[in-house]
Design brief:
Two copies of one chain form a homodimer. The first copy, chain A, is an alpha/beta fold. Helix content of chain A is 18%, strand content 30%. Chain A has six helices and 28 strands. In chain A, β24 and β25 form a beta hairpin. Chains A, B: One of its GO terms (biological process) is Mo-molybdopterin cofactor biosynthetic process.
Chain lengths: 398, 398
C-alpha cells in the first residue's frame, strides 16, 4: 500500500520552494478593485490638514454663556478668503468649509435665530463643537493601507482622497488551465456518445483564478494520448507562470499527465493523504509550477483551493481563509484520510453553524455540492465522528 | 425640531414603490461571474445519465466471495463500445468510463493482481463499489440554481456541465453618480487653495455599484451653483436607471440638490433618524430613483448600503446581508439616533466578534473607518449602552 504524505507536510514542501512574487504594475485606482496592493500607503500629510467645519452653521471663538454674535460674512466650502475673526463675531460657515483664524467652534444653524446681523444663540454647544480637527482622519506618517491588502471600495476611496491616480498592485500571475480526458468535451462541441460529458473543470478553474487574483489562460482540452498531453503541457507552460492540469493522475493506463510530469519536471509533491484529491501532483519547472489535479470536478475545485491558492496567497502575502464554526449535525467520516467536506455556513446569535443540508453523498464528481457559497469542513485524519455542537475548522472556498 | 422618520418606515416607503426588475440579457457563462441569474436552472436529465466508473479498475457483476475474473477487454473513458459482460468476466474500466451492461461493481486496480488474462481479487469490495449511480449529481427536474442567485465559480461550473453556453442574467441597472460640492476636485485636477479636497465619493460609489451588481456611470463633479446642479441632475437621469448624488442636502445656503429635488421630482423620503446620514433624500422620476446622499464620504458609503442597495437587492431578489455577532468591548452610543458604526469582525471558536479596533472617533468624513472589510454595528435608537459580550446586529458593507 502506498504511504500517503501528510497534507501539512506537502504544504511545507510547497512553501519551501516559493520565491517572493515581486512583479508589480501600476493601474488606475478605478481599475484596481480586488487587486492586491504591492506597497504600503502612508499618509504624506495630516488629513484634514486644516480645521474644517463638520456642519452648516456659524464659526466663532467659544466662551462661556455667549448668547449673541455679530455676523461678518460667509465662507462657502472650497473657498479660502484668509478670514480672521474678532471676539463676539462669527462667520457663516458650511459643511466642509475652512474654520477661519480665531474660531474654534461651530454653532449649527438649528441652534440659532437670526436677527439682521445678529445671531442669537438659542442652544449652547460645547467648545470645539462640529469642528473636524487637523488629522482627524489620519496623521502624517500613518500607514493607511498595508502591502498585500486586497483593495476594496473603501481602500480605493481612500486612494482617491489621497490624490493617488495610479496604484502599484501585484501583476496577476498567469495561470494556464489544461483539462485532459478523452471523455470530456468543450462547450459547443457535440457529444458523440453517452460516455462523453461536458468539461466543467477548465471553466470552474478559470473562474476560481479570477476570484483568487490570477489571470486564467484556458487551453484547449486534450485527449488521453501520451504525446498530445506532453506537448500541451510544454506549450501551456510557455506563456504561463503556473499550469493547472486536471485528470490523468490516478491509476489508469491512460493517465499520461502523471507520465509527462515524471519524465520532464521536478515533482515536489506526489500524492497526499486527503479526501478528495489524494492523487495530486505538484511539479516545478524553473520558477514555474505545475499542479496536476484529479479529473473529478469536486476534487479539482477543492484541490485548487488546497494547493494552488496556497501558492498565490504566499505570493500576495495573504493568509488562508480559515475559520471555526459549530457543527450543526452529527458527522461520521467515511474515509481514513484527512477530509474536506462541503458544508453550508449560517449565523445565529453570533455563532457560525455548519451543516450539510442538500449535500449529496457519492463520488468526487458532484459539482453542485459546491454551489451556494459552500465552504469546506476540515475533518482530521484521526477523527471518525464529530458530534453536533462541536467546534470545527472550516476553510472558505472562493 | 424636525421629527425624523424611522429608518424602517422609510424603507417601507421605498419598498412600496419598487416594481420588479425584469430586464434580462444573455451572457456567456465565462462572463457571468458574480452576476445575478434571472431564471431557475432545472436539470433536463439525470446526471450522470448512465452509470459511470468512479475509479480505475475492473467492472464486473458482483457475487459473494468472487476471487477470480476473466479479463475480456478494456473501455477507456469517453468510449462506448456497447459491451456486455457474462458471469466471471470483467472489463478494464477507467475513471469516468461507462459501466458496461451486466456490470454493477468496480474493483480498483489496487485490490487485484494480474495473471495473464486472469484478474485475482486480493481485497474484496462491496456490491456497487466505485460506481457513480445514475442521477448521483442530480435528478431530472431538480432545481439546481435558483433565480436571483449570484453566480459563483461553482454555479458557472455547473452551467458548463449542463452544456449551457449563454445564461440569462439581470441586466445591471445603470447608476449615475454625481458628486456635488465647490470644495471637491477630481483626480488630476489641481487643488487651488487649502479649502479644497479630493473627491472620493464618486469613486467609492462607483466601486460599490460594481460590487453590488450595477453599472456605474460617473458624472462630472458639479459645483454648488443652483442651475448647474439642476442641469446635471436632469442630464444624468437621462442615461441612468438610478441617480446617486452626494452633497447638497443639509442645512446650508448652497445645498442645491435639495432644492433641485423639491422643484422637479417626487420626494418619497425626506430624512431619517439615523446616524450617519440623516439628511438623506430619495425621490422618484417615473420608474427612476434619485438617492441624494450626504457629502461626507463615510456617510455617503454607509447610506449607499442602507438605501441604494435595498433597491438593487429588491430588484435582484437578494436579501440584505444582516447577521449577528458578539460585541467584544463596551459601546456607548453618542447620538440619540439609530446608529450604524463601523466595526471589524473576527471569528474565534465558532463565534463572530465585533470590535472597534483602529476606528476613529470624529465626523462622518473618515473614509478609513471603512477599510479592512469593516461591517456596520447596528445600534437601535433606544439603546444607550451595549456591554461587552452582548449579541448585536451587524450589516455587512460590500
Amino acid at each position: 500500500m502506498k504511504q500517503w504524505a501528510k497534507y501539512e507536510d506537502t504544504l511545507e514542501i510547497l512553501r519551501s520552494t516559493i520565491k517572493p512574487w515581486s512583479n508589480v504594475q501600476k493601474v488606475a485606482i478605478t481599475q484596481a478593485l480586488d487587486r492586491y496592493i504591492a506597497v504600503d500607503i502612508v499618509a504624506k500629510d495630516n488629513y484634514p490638514s486644516r480645521e474644517l467645519s463638520a456642519m452648516d452653521g456659524y464659526a466663532f471663538k467659544w466662551s462661556q454663556n455667549l448668547s449673541e454674535l455679530n455676523l461678518t460674512t460667509d465662507l462657502p466650502a472650497g473657498t479660502d478668503k484668509g478670514l480672521v475673526i474678532n471676539e463676539n463675531e462669527c462667520i457663516k460657515t458650511f459643511t466642509g468649509s475652512l474654520m477661519s483664524e480665531g474660531t474654534d467652534t461651530l454653532i449649527p444653524v438649528e441652534n440659532v435665530e437670526i436677527n439682521g446681523n445678529k445671531i442669537l444663540i438659542k442652544k449652547q454647544v460645547p467648545k470645539g463643537f462640529a469642528v473636524r480637527e487637523i488629522g482627524e482622519s489620519y496623521k502624517k506618517g500613518e500607514i493607511l493601507i498595508k502591502k498585500g491588502a486586497k483593495l476594496g471600495y473603501a481602500e480605493i476611496a481612500l486612494l482617491a482622497e489621497l490624490g493617488e491616480f495610479h496604484v502599484s498592485v501585484f501583476i496577476r500571475p498567469r495561470v494556464a488551465i489544461l483539462a485532459t480526458g478523452s471523455e470530456i468535451k468543450d462547450l459547443g462541441e457535440a457529444l458523440e456518445n453517452p460516455a462523453q460529458i461536458r468539461s466543467s473543470n477548465h471553466i470552474a478553474l478559470a473562474m476560481m483564478m479570477q476570484k483568487m487574483g490570477a489571470e486564467p489562460i484556458v487551453c484547449e482540452i486534450v485527449r488521453d494520448k501520451k504525446e498530445l498531453v506532453q506537448e500541451a503541457i510544454v506549450n501551456a507552460l510557455k506563456s504561463a507562470d503556473v499550469l493547472i492540469t486536471t485528470g490523468g493522475v490516478s491509476m489508469g493506463d491512460y493517465d499520461f499527465v502523471k507520465a509527462a510530469l515524471k519524465d520532464n519536471f521536478n515533482i515536489i509533491i506526489d500524492g497526499a493523504g486527503i479526501k478528495p484529491g489524494r492523487h495530486i501532483k505538484v511539479a516545478t519547472s524553473g520558477d514555474k509550477y505545475i499542479f496536476a489535479l484529479p479529473g473529478f470536478p469536486y476534487s479539482a475545485m477543492v484541490m485548487c483551493v488546497l494547493y494552488v491558492r496556497v501558492l498565490l496567497n504566499a505570493w500576495f502575502g495573504v493568509s488562508e481563509p480559515k475559520l471555526t464554526a459549530i457543527l450543526d449535525e452529527d458527522y461520521t467520516k467515511r474515509s481514513p484520510f484527512l477530509e474536506f467536506t462541503a458544508v453550508n455556513l449560517s449565523v445565529r446569535d453570533g455563532k457560525i453553524y455548519a451543516n450539510l443540508d442538500g449535500k449529496k453523498l457519492g463520488s468526487s464528481a458532484i459539482v453542485n455540492n459546491l454551489t451556494n457559497e459552500a465552504a469546506l469542513l476540515i475533518v482530521p485524519k484521526e477523527t471518525e465522528f464529530i458530534a453536533k455542537g462541536e467546534v470545527v475548522e472550516i476553510l472558505r472556498m472562493v
